[in-house]
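Long-time lurker, first post. I've been practising inverse folding by hand and with some scripts of my own, and I keep getting stuck on stretches where the structure tokens seem ambiguous. Below is the full token string for one chain I'm working on. Before anyone asks, I'm not after the true native sequence, just a reasonable design that respects the backbone. If someone could post their per-position residues I'd love to compare against what I wrote down in my notebook.
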């Protein structure tokens, strides 16, 4: 479903396909919905008059839409970009989307994040943020500790290229200490398409990163936290395609590449739940259709019906 904004009205473009189209996935939620606070599929966006994405609509029902009002910073939709033929939102340069502050959903010390992506930069230096979230106070108590990059998921990390990193900061004594879980070296290339995941389990004192490639091979990495923190408070924003500094909301670490879907859970998914969600994302975006299915998809695309609703 695409929404087009004109100067005088909002038009909804409904694209209907015959059976067999991968677009039928767009209306379906993932197999695990408990704790799901954000669900973003590239088939459900609102476009500005210039064709940029002004809203990546939240399908979870929580209203956590990812917005960008500045036209020059709006990413665009790339139809048929993924191996399975699904669409993706394309980010380049300073383009990003931002989920507004929502402490009710985002003030948590347990996360499971997933993103289906392709990156144009897998080096260790750029570290473009696929996802990043920050808080006004990451360890409530006496005093206030600002940390606007409390949690992030990005390709590249440390001194090794080709990794996916899930990162956070914990308060050790009076100092913020960086912690990161990295996938094995060379698991991310600019030619590949991936399911990337991050799990922050403050209660279990661990951070985990997950990556599934086009051959459905799963790799993980983990690192330990030294102490549990009090639940962060004052969620400031969550950004897609961009990060920020540690003590300010200044834009930093832009992501260049494609993102087809994002799922945000404010809890730790069990191993079986992770398997179910990863299978759902893989079959939807990365599994290449058999020749007969591909032909049917082509017929479906040719026979698509457009309906403008004012």
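-- Answer (accepted) --
I ran through it position by position. Result:
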């Amino acid at each position: 479903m695409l929404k087009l904004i004109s100067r005088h009205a909002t038009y909804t473009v409904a694209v209907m396909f015959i059976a067999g189209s991968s677009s039928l996935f767009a209306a379906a939620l993932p197999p695990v919905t408990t704790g799901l606070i954000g669900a973003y599929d590239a088939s459900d966006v609102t476009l500005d008059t210039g064709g940029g994405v002004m809203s990546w609509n939240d399908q979870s029902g929580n209203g956590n839409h990812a917005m960008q009002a500045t036209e020059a910073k709006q990413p665009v939709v790339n139809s048929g970009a993924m191996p399975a033929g699904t669409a993706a939102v394309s980010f380049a340069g300073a383009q990003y989307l931002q989920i507004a502050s929502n402490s009710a959903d985002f003030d948590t010390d347990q996360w499971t994040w997933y993103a289906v992506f392709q990156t144009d930069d897998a080096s260790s230096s750029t570290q473009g943020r696929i996802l990043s979230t920050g808080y006004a106070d990451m360890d409530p108590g006496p005093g206030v500790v600002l940390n606007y990059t409390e949690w992030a998921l990005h390709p590249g990390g440390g001194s090794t290229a080709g990794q996916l990193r899930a990162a956070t900061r914990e308060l050790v004594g009076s100092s913020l200490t960086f912690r990161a879980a990295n996938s094995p070296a060379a698991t991310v290339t600019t030619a590949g398409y991936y399911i990337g995941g991050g799990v922050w389990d403050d209660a279990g004192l661990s951070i985990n990163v997950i990556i599934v490639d086009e051959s459905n091979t799963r790799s993980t990495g983990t690192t330990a936290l030294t102490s549990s923190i009090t639940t962060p408070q004052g969620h400031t924003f969550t950004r897609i395609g961009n990060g920020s500094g540690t003590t300010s909301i200044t834009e930093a670490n832009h992501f260049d590449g494609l993102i087809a879907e994002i799922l945000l859970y404010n809890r730790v998914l069990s191993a079986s739940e992770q398997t179910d969600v990863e299978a759902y994302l893989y079959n939807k975006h990365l599994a290449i259709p058999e020749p007969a299915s591909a032909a049917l998809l082509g017929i479906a695309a040719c026979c698509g019906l457009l309906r403008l609703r004012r």
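A couple of notes from the structure itself: The chain has a mean pLDDT of 83. Helices lie at 103-106, 271-286, 291-302. Happy to go over any region you disagree with.
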